[in-house]
């Protein structure tokens, strides 16, 4: 209670955050990636640090930068590297928020030399990456685990399924329906859904404000 009043409710907490895209190598010069900017994850990291938390920010390739004494950035490239970094630190954290846009599939074989242009079509065989969030859901003990969901149809139903399947405490449903929400933008429209399947719909707002709303909910839940 004292720390809430002093404005540092996360003072003795460590928060792990994943952010940005992952890049999955095809050959030495090419990869499969996505347009995630990393903005949401970096805003979550800053919000956590501003609340007094120690932050481990595992980030895929982005242009985002942050300079805060409480934030350690661990840069990674691939889903496997993000998985390894997350598992290395998970047992020592209180809260984990997985906002990264992790590639769902990666090339099954990575060519050691640049693939030469040849036939009129080229087929790449892909295999699933490991689901970092689901794997943490399976091993979590006291950690408060937060995931994201990006859906285009039956949003609420799909998000609740993810919450249950991955054993989460909270899921952030990202709505693509509104202009100005999503990957490249500075704003987001989210719905937060807790373990009891209670959904709270938020207005379109800056990612900075979305991060604050997220920690309000987390702190209220932890203190309940
Ligand atoms: N996630 C993860 N590791 C993966 C894939 C996803 O940690 N290999 C995490 C994301 O960071 C996000 C959540 O899982 O917090 C949901 O990601 P999303 O892409 O919405 O769902 P998926 O489970 O990958 O299912 P689908 O893409 O088929 O909807
Ligand atoms: Ca996915």
Automatic annotation (TrEMBL):
Flavoprotein in keyword set: yes
Cofactor, free-text remark: Binds 1 FMN per subunit.
Catalysed reactions listed for this entry: N-[(R)-4-phosphopantothenoyl]-L-cysteine + H(+) = (R)-4'-phosphopantetheine + CO2; (R)-4'-phosphopantothenate + L-cysteine + CTP = N-[(R)-4-phosphopantothenoyl]-L-cysteine + CMP + diphosphate + H(+)
Residues engaged in binding CTP: 104, 114, 148, 162, 166
Annotated keywords: Decarboxylase, Flavoprotein, FMN, Ligase, Lyase, Magnesium, Metal-binding, Multifunctional enzyme
Residues annotated as domain DNA/pantothenate metabolism flavoprotein C-terminal: 10-220
Coiled-coil positions: none
Tree of life domain: Bacteria
Region entry Phosphopantothenate--cysteine ligase, spans: 15-224
Pathway(s) of this molecule: Cofactor biosynthesis; coenzyme A biosynthesis; CoA from (R)-pantothenate: step 2/5; Cofactor biosynthesis; coenzyme A biosynthesis; CoA from (R)-pantothenate: step 3/5
MF annotations from Gene Ontology: phosphopantothenate--cysteine ligase activity; phosphopantothenoylcysteine decarboxylase activity
Family, similarity comment: In the C-terminal section; belongs to the PPC synthetase family.
Function according to Swiss-Prot or TrEMBL: Catalyzes two sequential steps in the biosynthesis of coenzyme A. In the first step cysteine is conjugated to 4'-phosphopantothenate to form 4-phosphopantothenoylcysteine. In the second step the latter compound is decarboxylated to form 4'-phosphopantotheine. Catalyzes two steps in the biosynthesis of coenzyme A. In the first step cysteine is conjugated to 4'-phosphopantothenate to form 4-phosphopantothenoylcysteine, in the latter compound is decarboxylated to form 4'-phosphopantotheine.
Name of protein: Coenzyme A biosynthesis bifunctional protein CoaBC
Protein species of origin: Olleya marilimosa
Lineage, broadest ranks: Bacteria, Pseudomonadati, Bacteroidota, Flavobacteriia, Flavobacteriales
Segment of the intact protein contained: 180 to 403 of 403
